Every structure is written in C-alpha cells, then in structure tokens.
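Hypothesis: this fold can be encoded by more than one sequence.
Test: take the structure tokens below, design a sequence, compare later.
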C-alpha cells in the first residue's frame, strides 16, 4: 500500500506534528509520503529498510527525521536563513536529510554517505523528488571537503562524543551539531553544560529518544 493512501500512518504523523505545533502543507506532506514509498518499494539498490520498519515508516522514521526541524527551527531559531548549509553524516537511505530538505527548501543540504548503493539510491530519490536543494556526496564526511557549515547532523551513527569529533571541524564558528539518539545512550550527558538535550517520544514506540545539540564556539 502506498503511503499516499495509508491513512493510519498519515494520521499518526500528523498527530505527532500537531502536538509539536507544526503544520505542513499538503504538497510537503505528499512529498514526504512519496519519499517513504521510494525507501520501502525501491529494490534495485538492496534492502534499504527492514520489513517491520517499512510498515511504520511515517510514524517512526519520517517523524524522527523531522525532530530537528521541530525543536531547532521552530523553538530555537524560528527559521533557518536562506542559503544556510546543512550536512548529514552517514546519510544512509536518506533519513533525516531528505525529510529535512523537503520541509526546508531554502536550506542547502548535503547528504554525505560512503556506501555506493546508498549513494545511488539517494541520487535516484533526489531526481524523483526534484530536490534541487540537496546534493548527494559519495564520501566519508572527513574527506568530503565540506566546511564552514551552519549545521551538521547525524542519526544513530556512533557515540555522541565520536560524532561530535567528526562533525566539529566542518562547522563554522557559531554552527550547530545535531544528533538523534536513544535517550539511554546519551543519559550521561545530562549534566554537560556544552550540550542541550530534547527528549521526545515517537508514535507507538515505547523507548524515549533524544535530540542532542552542541554549538561550535
């Protein structure tokens, strides 16, 4: 079943967004549903997602991918300025960077991923979705040449400390690092004054998640 007709999943995603004060246009939501279908249904680039997760892609993966938009853009910065540069390390099959690029067309995004099949899928998805504000970079972040970035993000890549160490050289002064983790994996950071932690729950998921951010001084 296409996510364009999966009303249950659409309702779970929209309820999550509404609870966080976010309302997206039908066009933007439609593009998010189309991206979900591409990840779940595209087979020529290998198995991009487990069968279990393919049944809850909107409520689990799209919702999670939009947490940086909800918390950072809406609550802290109000809006990301046009022309801001945002790179995602280890972008995999495109979460969170494709959903973020869909909801923030004014931002220049870089999906950085060294695995060839994932890179080929993201290039395919970028073309299908006409995402002119997204560039797929088939390298490791350290060798990508990207620098003076406003934002660097990653999702469940390594430990917070390792991810920050990789991201920090690519950030400009005043830039921000953002990472999505299970809360259990970052609980030791709760008293670290350099980081900010935003706990959240995803629809029908039992564990607690966290968006962790750190600014580059």
């Amino acid at each position: 079943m296409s996510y364009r007709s999966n009303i249950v999943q659409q309702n779970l995603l929209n309820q999550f967004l509404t609870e966080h004060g976010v309302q997206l246009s039908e066009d933007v939501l439609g593009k998010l549903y189309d991206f979900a279908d591409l990840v779940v249904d595209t087979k020529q680039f290998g198995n991009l997602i487990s069968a279990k997760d393919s049944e809850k892609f909107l409520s689990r993966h799209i919702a999670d991918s939009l947490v940086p938009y909800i918390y950072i853009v809406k609550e802290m910065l109000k809006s990301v300025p046009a022309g801001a540069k945002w790179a995602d390390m280890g972008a995999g099959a495109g979460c969170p960077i494709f959903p973020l690029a869909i909801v923030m067309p004014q931002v220049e995004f870089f999906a950085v991923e060294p695995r060839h099949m994932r890179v080929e899928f993201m290039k395919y998805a970028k073309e299908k979705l006409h995402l002119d504000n997204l560039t797929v970079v088939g390298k490791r972040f350290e060798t990508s040449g990207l620098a003076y970035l406003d934002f660097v993000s990653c999702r469940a890549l390594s430990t917070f400390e390792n991810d920050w160490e990789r991201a920090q050289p690519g950030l400009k002064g005043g830039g921000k690092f953002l990472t999505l983790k299970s809360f259990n994996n970052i609980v030791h950071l709760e008293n670290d004054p350099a980081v900010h932690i935003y706990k959240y729950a995803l629809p029908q998921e039992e564990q607690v998640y966290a968006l962790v951010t750190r600014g580059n001084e």
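Helices lie at 7-19, 26-41, 51-54, 57-65, 67-77, 97-103, 116-129, 160-167. The chain is about 40% helix and 20% strand.
Hypothesis status: open.
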